[in-house]
Amino acid sequence: MSESSSGAASAVPSTVAANGTGRIPRWKMILAVFGPGLVVMLADTDAGSLITAAQSGAQWGYTLIMANLILIPIVFVVQELTIRLGILTGKGHGELIRDRFGIRWAWLSVGTLVLSCAGAIVSEMSGVAGVGLMWGIPEWASTSAVAVFLTLVVVTGSYKRVERIAISIGLFELVFVVTMFMSDPDPEQVAAGLTSFPISNPAYLFLVAANIGAVVMPWMIFYQQSAVVDKGLTTADITASRWDTAVGSVVTQLIMISMLVTCAATLWANNGTTDLNTVEQISEAITPYLGDFAGRVLFSVGITGAALVAAIVACLTAAWGLGELTGYKRTLETSAREAPWFYLVFVAVLLTGMIIVISGVNIIDLNIGIQVMNALLLPIVLGFLVALAFKALPDAYKLKGWYGWLIVVVATLTAGLGVYSGIAGIFGGGS
């Protein structure tokens, strides 16, 4: 994992100040590089993921906390590979697969991406719609307002501006850390849950798969690789990018665990196993313990922040991924007139999610099903990622030795457990 030269032309000065007067402080360099990892991790804890965490806590108490802790290093090592691939090749994920394995394999990979992005945007729009209904706003009105807002943010901004807006919005998810402490979980129950793994129960396995799919998502891999290219990072920025991703990995799982603990402490601990059916029900169930108005406001802010940042990421990822194979111009540094297809795909994905949500589907079941779908897609997604890390990187950066084998084992076990848990949960009656 030593550093080497070469990479995309950098838009971020890594060692020399922009005015050419000398070296800039290291902390400024790190902050300049920070962004892609934190954005993708905040998007990782999207509305669907939070709904999955809520259902996990309501049905199984604290027993899925350990699974979410184990996923912290896993999501880091997966996303760290995208940093290397993007910076050292200057290419997005789909484009790199096409160059190394051919156009058919590239379309297979991008096909899984589009499926995952479509599922993600449905999750985000459903979260927004659920929050809107809590305050008496019709689904069509809340989702339309979000679609217009996000389109304006992306069409009128550069990559740097969009990244800053996404981080600012996504940080609202940290309100769930507040709700976790407000819910006053029983330390003895938490400790017991950390050592309880009812793996013989199909319903538990189904939620294990959903939690895996909620953390390691196909569109995250595509997004971060394209983002470091669009931001213009170089090999000098790799270490700072790893810290960016490491911080994001901890933050995203802290938020997931916070939602899980909140619902376990307020629902499961007081009422036993609870099956949640609507977003409003999650809020209504926890507000008696947190205070009605405060609980509603905190819940609304957290879910909306999660949904908006993930919607930006999922739609941009679809637009980048399709552009890598079809060849249309694909960067936030161009206007809609210069890159019409890039922005049209972004809007089309947004509208698809909005239409599906206002059709009246069961939001909770749909969101958990989408996370399980993500888990079932992991063999394709992680398979290509690991293969590229062996084949496409310069020798100093490619996977090899004990670390290469460790990544292979981690990817195999993660994908295998995701698929096994999903299939066992579906056919065992857990869905």
Structural class: mainly alpha
- C-alpha Rg, in Å? 21 Å
CATH-defined topology: Amino acid/polyamine transporter I
- The poorly predicted ranges are 1-21
What's the number of domains? Answer: 1
Q: Helix proportion of residues, in percent? A: over 70%
Order of helices and strands: HHHHHHHHHHHHHHHHHHH
Q: Report mean pLDDT, rounded to a whole number.
A: 82
What is the overall number of helices? 19
Strand content: under 5%
Total number of β-strand segments?
Answer: 0
CATH-defined architecture = Up-down Bundle
CATH level 4 superfamily: Amino acid/polyamine transporter I
C-alpha termini separation: 42 Å
Write a short abstract of this structure.
With 431 residues, the protein is mainly alpha-helical. The chain has helices at residues 26-33, 36-44, 47-60, 65-89, 93-101, 103-134, 139-155, 159-170, 175-182, 187-194, 202-215, 218-231, 238-271, 279-290, 292-326, 340-357, 363-376, 378-391, 401-427. The chain has 19 helices and no strands.
Lay out the secondary structure.
Elements lengths: L25 H8 L2 H9 L2 H14 L4 H25 L3 H9 L1 H32 L4 H17 L3 H12 L4 H8 L4 H8 L7 H14 L2 H14 L6 H34 L7 H12 L1 H35 L13 H18 L5 H14 L1 H14 L9 H27 L4
Provide a descriptive summary of the structure in words.
The chain has 431 residues and is mainly alpha-helical. The chain has one domain: Amino acid/polyamine transporter I (Up-down Bundle). It is built from 19 helices and no strands. Helix 5 (93-101) runs antiparallel to helix 6 (103-134). The radius of gyration is 21 Å and the shape is globular. It starts with 25 loop residues before the first helix and ends with a helix.
